[in-house]
Amino acid sequence: MTGPGVLVPQVPLARVSPADLAAVGDSRVTVLLVEDDDGDALLVEETLRDSGLAVRLTRARSLAEARRELSGEHGPPAECVLLDLHLPDAQGLDVVGQVLAVSPRAAVVVLTGLAEEGVGLSAVAAGAQDYLIKGVFEPTVLARSVRYAVQRRQIEQAAMALEASRMRAQENSRLERGLLPSPLLHGAGVQVVSRYEPSRSLGLLSGDFYDVVEAPDGTVHAVIGDVSGHGPDEAALGVCLRVAWRSFTLAGVTGTGVCELMQKVLVAERTGSEIFATVTTVELPPGMTKAKVVRAGHPPLLLRDPAGVRLVETAVGPALGLLPDGRRHWREDHVDLPAAGGLALFTDGLFEGRVSADGKRLGEDGLLALARRNAGRSAEEFVTALIAETRALSADHGGHSDDVALLHLEWNEQK
């Protein structure tokens, strides 16, 4: 048995442009000076003034005052904090952590004494963006340190946001992979090949769904469906319907009965009354020469036998969710099966791609022609060829603009 072929998208990484960084130097930087010594504070203020850097400077004389300034109570918090590590109410490297805890987005430049350069390096390791030695730095050095500290902090914040986004994307991908179907077959009488391509960007799931299970009596049940729409709500509803179908089928509900129950689930779970779903269910009893088929607004099937491929039209009822519940809308039909052959179930995204500049679609007849051209291939090659060739034909006119699901069931004479 071949597992589902799923197109796995790559998560693009956002970039911080040079223009974004240059804008920091062109705008007025809000700076909070945390310094209890008036002499040192005056020196920093004069140096900033001489540097020509456009700043809006605020001063705090203690960690408590700094916390109030950074809390946002008196306006937007500072972009850069010039921080002395010897304050009346806090001492040492712990001050850096406390400042960042209050204002995680702020850039921190530590101000140290001449004999404390090692402390400055430790402060950078603790989360500060830079350090300066009091009384030594020139105006240009201070201006450059403030600008670069703000830029580095912005880059760090962007990197953390990207990493968080990447982690969420990975978690979502793992979740979606876990919701993809895994055929439940006990014997080797029926082989399954499938392909599944969502149209929505970065998605692994779509409103299209399929599944295959084998009942205790050896009957193989298959379903394929298509929820109207292409968003995450439709993808979630598709998963819901697939799981509902599997549960009902394993509980012994089949044929039109499972369609009735699936319609109840759809009506209860859909986000709007306009949402509907097309569905085809197939039953392959062991040792039988006929397949039982129920179609609810869904496209026909492709039947493969030694003579070639043909399109099989069976009785079709309305899509799930279109008509009021409470009466039977669907009926069971039967398809004669060859001793060895295959059935291909598909969603309309496989044949609705445009293949010419005038908007002509491939259509069911065009799909049948492609299927016949590939009739002699193995099941795996047949499915791959249908996906590849329908995509190639529509590539210049929008490609597969809809979700695509293709499910192939193959059996031999010992079916």
From TrEMBL:
Q: What Gene3D superfamilies does the record tag this protein with?
A: 3.40.50.2300, PPM-type phosphatase domain (3.60.40.10)
Is Transcription one of the keywords UniProt gives this record? no
Modified positions (4-aspartylphosphate) in chain numbering: 84
- Where in this chain does the record put each Response regulatory domain? 30-149
What the entry lists under SUPFAM superfamilies is as follows: CheY-like
Q: Which residues form a coiled coil?
A: none
Task: Indicate whether Membrane appears among the record's keywords.
Answer: no
What InterPro entries does the record point to? Bact_Sigma-Reg (IPR052016), CheY-like_superfamily (IPR011006), PPM-type-like_dom_sf (IPR036457), PPM-type_phosphatase-like_dom (IPR001932), Sig_transdc_resp-reg_receiver (IPR001789)
Q: Which GO terms describe its molecular function?
A: phosphatase activity
Say which domain of life the source belongs to: Bacteria
Tell me a GO biological process for this protein. Answer: phosphorelay signal transduction system
Key words, A-Z:
Hydrolase, Phosphoprotein
Cross-referenced CDD domains, in alphabetical order?
Answer: REC (cd00156)
Q: What is this protein called?
A: Fused response regulator/phosphatase
- What is the organism of origin for this protein? Streptomyces tirandamycinicus
